[in-house]
Amino acid sequence: MSEPNQQISPAKLAWKRFKRNRAAIISAWFLIALLVAVVAWPMILKFGGTPFAQMHNPNEISDAQFNSPNAQHWFGTDLHGRDLFSRVLYGAQISLLVGIVGALVSFVIGVLWGAVAGYAGGRTDAILMRIVDVLYSLPTIIFVIVLFATVGEAMKQAHFVQNSPALEKSLRVILLFVGLGAVSWLTMARIVRGQVLSLRTRAFVEASRAMGAKPHWIIAKHIIPNIFGVAITYLALTMPAIILYESFLSFLGLGVQTPMASWGTLISDGVSQINPIRIYWWLIVFPGGILVATLLALNFLGDGLRDAWDIKNRS
């Protein structure tokens, strides 16, 4: 006889429900395969021999301009004869890294903000959530564009940045991490606050409070562990939004700068080559297709996690 659900941990129940979601499982395998390819490809280039490495070097300029996909260049080549397959995988490093780090920044801010607001209640809760409401009323993408334009210009004027173009490009990537994460935590804070409001009156929280536990200890030991599943779910749903923001900013020329590449810059390069005589379709289809597939996979994964952790699903 199988063990009753009441004796199974919430994590095991969530995993059991998640495995039944075929779209989420396929999405998870796709994302794992993409991450493996992104990590393994630089090592393949390093140990694949000099001719192979030169042919597929993402920054190697050659005479093979605008070659359509073939046996040597699987995704074709761009204006400068660079291998598009390698550039898509190297661009994935930036796009995925921005998505992961930005989502983690959003996760930390949103969880702490929502947990403090929900547990404190009263005036503290009202003030913190009114700040969230005000920020919600601002057009996020316009705010991010203004932030990048002003801070980016300030960085260019800084003396230590003027003498180091590489440092400027690195600082712009860090600004992507922080800036996109700092404007994506609002929904996370609201979700966490709602969960905390329902948890703060539970018996185990009341018992800890009666024993003299400090609020920060209760939040760290009891509140956050019990909302972790929900928070992770919305973390997965935040990543595609941040990746899309980064791609849009890079498409506009405000994000990643050459010679670095992201999916947004690759799509921008492809669009710039459209002309009435000929359309080099592979410059748009492959980076755009990988971007769309990744966003869909992350959304399906987030939906699967949300359904798996839904307390209404008992089976």
How many domains make up the 3D coordinates? 1
Question: Helix/strand/pairing class, anyone?
Answer: mainly alpha
From the 3D structure, determine the CATH topology.
MetI-like fold
> Helical percent range?
over 70%
Number of strands: 0
How far is the N terminus from the C terminus? 16 Å
Task: Identify the quaternary structure here.
Answer: single chain
CATH-derived architecture: Orthogonal Bundle
- Name the CATH homologous superfamily: MetI-like
Unreliable residue runs: 1-5
Question: Biggest β-sheet, characterized?
Answer: none
Q: What's the rounded overall pLDDT mean?
A: 82
Percentage of residues in DSSP E strands: under 5%
Q: Report the total helices.
A: 13
The dominant shape is: globular
- Which class in CATH terms? Mainly Alpha
Give the ordered list of helices and strands: HHHHHHHHHHHHH
- Rg on CA atoms, Å: 23 Å
Task: Summarize the structure in words.
It is a single chain. The chain has 315 residues and is mainly α. It has a single domain (19-309), classed as MetI-like (MetI-like fold), CATH 1.10.3720. The chain has 13 helices and no strands.
Topology:
Blueprint (H helix, E strand, L loop, with lengths): L9 H10 L2 H26 L2 H7 L27 H37 L1 H16 L2 H18 L1 H4 L2 H18 L3 H14 L3 H8 L4 H38 L10 H10 L9 H28 L6
Helix pairs in contact: 1-13, 2-3, 2-4, 2-13, 4-5, 4-8, 4-9, 4-11, 4-12, 6-8, 9-11, 10-11, 11-12, 11-13, 12-13
Descriptors:
13 helices; globular; mainly alpha; 74% helix; MetI-like fold; 315 residues
State the gist of this model.
The chain has 315 residues and is mainly α. It is built from 13 helices and no strands.
